[in-house]
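Let us walk through a complete example step by step. Step one is to write down the protein sequence. Step two is to encode the small molecule, guanosine-5'-triphosphate, as a SMILES string so that its atoms and bonds are unambiguous. Step three, shown after the inputs, is the structure prediction itself.
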Amino acid sequence: MNLDSRTMMVMMSALILLFSGLLTLAGLHAGNTRGVQHWALGGLCIGLGLGFSYPQQELPGSSWVLVLGATLAATGIGLQFNGIQAFKTGLCNKYIPWLLAGLVFIQSIWFVILHPDIHSRVVANSLVFALCNAACARALFIRIEQPLRTAYWFTGGSFAVVAMMLLLRAAIVFLSPANTYGLFSQAPINPATFFIGSMAQMCLAFGFVLMLNYRLSADLQKLALSDALTGALNRRSLEQEAARLSARCTRTGDALAIMMIDVDHFKSINDRYGHPVGDEVLRRLAAVAQKTIRSDDYFARYGGEEFCILLPSTIEKDAWTLADRLRQNYAALIMEFGGDVLRSTISIGVSDSIHAGLEFSSLVAAADQAMYRAKQEGRNRVVMHSFCLSQVNI
Ligand SMILES: Nc1nc2c(ncn2[C@@H]2O[C@H](COP(=O)(O)OP(=O)(O)OP(=O)(O)O)[C@@H](O)[C@H]2O)c(=O)[nH]1
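Step three: the predicted structure of the complex.
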């Protein structure tokens, strides 16, 4: 079967341009997800670059068009690499596309204008583009965020296929006798390159859209489970976690401790400094709490200025120690708002499953009772539920 390389090259270029448009459209609805514009612009450069390579050296002045095409394609792959970095980490090195463009520009000037040699040019270009695609694949395969695993593997796999195909092309052309190879000669590597390249470009575009889709749905899920003001878990997800932890503790016999935290005189903070300052106070408390607790504890906003922490494998006495550290850390915080210095305190009630049982509602009720006791006793303190019980029994 003889596939026509020229037609396939035009098709591949058109496909990439089409996908670039698709990514632009997808990016319009991606909010502040970084990287999508890089992919779209990268696709545009690669598509145009391939299109420019089409006339080869048959038309007058087409040598320069060929240089421009290779340079554009290198810029495009650099932009796609940056897009991956920006998508994954929010950061990228903006010089990478320029560096690649510079390298391929010099290389193309050498092999197309100064010392025209199609053999060496194809080997050199294939090697450079293979390395670029391998770098994109590597960037996708390392430090994978769990919910996006499949999308990263799929897109990284597509880049790896392109990299391997280009390596193979470099090897075949390198080993073939001099002056026997041309881009549009009947060598089977040409149609194979364009066929696999077109398929891989389709997979890449699909992979990018899949990554975007997974990221948006992970963000949505996070939003649905967290409190918008403080970033803590919301009450719904706290209840879900509590049910899961209760089931685990029933199985293992472990204790589960709880803290209910309430800001002291929060109403007067709002009244005196205004609601935006009140909101900021809640954010600062959340930040202190997140820093103080362990990574496997669950910190949630229970409602208004009340927070709750679930502490797996913890008994009331140890929860008290952690709660008192949190109380002290927060009391030591000096907050400044427009020249006003504000200090605030919290009252905390703690309990555990040994005293209150594993039902979430009874744990909350017990810790709440201890927290109100802390308020009654003068605020800025931590009270254990067992202390309230012992007072009742006297
Ligand atoms: N700024 C802000 N205020 C909130 C938010 N949620 C609840 N509040 C306010 O928090 C205040 C809670 O006040 P109270 O329940 O009377 O308690 P308090 O003033 O903290 O007094 P004690 O708890 O007895 O120390 C109310 O004025 C609510 O309007 C919020 O998200 N942001």
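Step four is interpretation. The pocket of guanosine-5'-triphosphate is lined by residues 229, 262-268, 270, 275, 278-279, 282, 304-305, 375, 379 (CB under 6 Å).
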